[in-house]
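tokens incoming
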């Protein structure tokens, strides 16, 4: 029996997925705090140091671009955390940031959003809905347009996405507004991009600028949260100690990780060995670690590999020419953690993969973590790994998302019309007599087909009128087919009309589906519309 919880995006516009419900957030957090208190001195010490660094770093980082005077450092309270890549995601993802603020206030704590800047950027553009004329015909049908804020093609971590084309970046908001004109006349990108232009001057990195712009806009809207890039978290000695707890027992971690991944695939009927995560490999005494290595001078992510050499832990990307490599003396764990945190540098970045990222965020940094749908699904695998390796009960999380469509959409049941037209086109071939009231058809052929059909009428006895059937039966079928073909030819004009109507209905259906997508970037939506919708979903209206 599959015991994994299933999370699915809400179907209806303006609806949310919040599991467990908001009313349970305080109890869930309280349960997590109680569990944390029972997990022993290693976790107590790690959490104390990690959270002290987290708060200090998050205040320092956030204060560079928005007000943090509301933070009472003497009375922080529990930490509620969420996280996502620094991209222009859809409104259902952004809803999680509003929920983060709401839940933190409910529980008397502080909300911190972790900017997952070690994930690989997919590109430097977004797809937006547009109705301006396009294509060879200059038609104004709804379609997607790609709007770029840089020329980079992605493929490197977000924290490495330096902007190459400031001309594109500086006028991105104008390009988006022009593209969506007629769909949305007041997109939030206009307000968002004022923050982005300030941010890009500070950091020069697209991922950083996008995250700070969004968070700056959230500040304008009254949200009280802090943010911190994962890259900053990874510089701390607490993070280094957590990583070394895994690396010094990596063969055992391999067993927990790979066995759990195999069970997950089996339970979900997944054939791909790469989904949801590939198993960790072992080669020539090297064990693959759940970490990435990259740096400013070579931003492509490489797998981290580890082996023991005497009392030293060797961490390497095993690149054939000029591998990056660190040697850590692990005889004294605390000193080893300090050594590791001191040795990582802009050209040797040691970053966690997804499951270890959320493991650290949930078990060390926060009292309650808010996942999206994807994270909620896959972190159940992380829970198994954590429980088996660390021998502790993982802390519980919430899953939060929403479905929000563009405002003003009028839905038409194109499916019904399409089914009707397809059925009529089929009837033109097999039952052309049905159209005798719309087209003048050959009366003799109609009469003959009716006569042939009558031959197979079923009497009360249940026996066919075999005496009237032509012999052999194939002759009857062939004559019916011939009559249908002749009648169908007489319906060519109607066929063309129905095909044209079907093509138009299918285009309208595709256009409606495009416009009603929940995946449009949040920055094309009116900000007031999103705020009002979020407030309703959080019970604030």
């Amino acid at each position: 029996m599959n015991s994994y919880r299933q999370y699915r995006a809400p179907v209806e516009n303006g609806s949310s997925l919040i599991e467990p419900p908001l009313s349970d957030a305080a109890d869930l957090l309280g349960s997590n705090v109680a569990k944390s208190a029972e997990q022993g001195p290693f976790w107590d010490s790690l959490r104390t140091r990690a959270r002290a660094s987290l708060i200090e770093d998050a205040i320092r980082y956030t204060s560079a671009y928005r007000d943090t005077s509301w933070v009472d450092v003497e009375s922080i309270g529990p930490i509620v955390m969420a996280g996502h890549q620094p991209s222009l995601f859809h409104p259902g993802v952004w809803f999680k940031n509003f929920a983060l603020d709401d839940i933190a206030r409910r529980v008397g704590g502080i909300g911190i959003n972790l900017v997952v800047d070690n994930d690989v950027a997919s590109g430097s553009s977004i797809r937006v809905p547009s109705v301006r004329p396009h294509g060879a015909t200059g038609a104004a049908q709804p379609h997607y347009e790609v709007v770029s804020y840089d020329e980079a093609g992605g493929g490197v971590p977000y924290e490495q996405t330096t902007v190459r084309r400031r001309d594109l970046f500086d006028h991105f908001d104008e390009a988006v507004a022009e593209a969506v004109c007629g769909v949305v006349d007041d997109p939030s990108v206009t307000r968002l991009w004022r923050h982005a232009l300030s941010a890009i001057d500070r950091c020069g990195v697209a991922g950083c600028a996008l995250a700070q712009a969004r968070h700056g806009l959230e500040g304008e809207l009254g949200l009280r949260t802090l943010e911190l890039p994962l890259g900053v978290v990874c510089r701390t000695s607490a993070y280094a100690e957590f990583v070394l707890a895994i690396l010094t027992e990596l063969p055992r971690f391999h067993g927990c990780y790979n066995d759990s991944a195999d069970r997950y695939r089996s339970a979900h009927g997944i054939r791909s060995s790469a989904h949801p995560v590939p198993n960790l490999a072992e080669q020539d005494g090297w064990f693959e670690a759940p970490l990435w290595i990259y740096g400013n001078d070579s931003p492509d992510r490489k797998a981290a590999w580890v082996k023991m050499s005497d009392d030293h832990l060797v961490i390497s990307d095993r690149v054939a020419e000029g591998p990056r490599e660190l040697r850590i003396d692990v005889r004294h764990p605390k000193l080893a953690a300090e050594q590791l945190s001191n040795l990582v540098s802009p050209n040797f970045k040691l970053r966690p993969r997804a499951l270890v990222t959320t493991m650290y965020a949930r078990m060390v940094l926060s009292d309650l973590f808010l996942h999206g749908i994807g994270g909620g699904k896959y972190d159940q695998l992380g829970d198994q790994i954590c429980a088996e390796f660390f021998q502790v009960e993982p802390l519980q999380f919430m899953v939060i998302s929403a479905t929000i469509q563009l405002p003003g959409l009028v839905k038409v049941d194109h499916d019904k019309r399409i089914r009707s037209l397809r059925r009529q086109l089929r009837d033109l071939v097999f039952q052309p007599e049905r159209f005798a009231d719309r087209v003048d058809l050959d009366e003799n052929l109609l009469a003959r087909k009716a006569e042939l059909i009558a031959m197979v009428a079923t009497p009360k006895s249940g026996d066919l009128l075999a005496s009237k059937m032509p012999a052999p039966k194939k002759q009857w079928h062939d004559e019916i087919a011939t009559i249908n073909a002749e009648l169908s030819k007489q319906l060519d004009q109607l066929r063309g009309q129905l095909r044209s109507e079907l093509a138009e209905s299918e285009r309208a259906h595709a256009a409606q589906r495009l416009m009603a997508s929940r995946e449009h970037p949040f920055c094309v939506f009116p900000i007031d519309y999103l705020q009002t919708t979020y407030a309703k979903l959080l019970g604030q209206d």
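note: Residues 459-466 have pLDDT under 50 and may be disordered.
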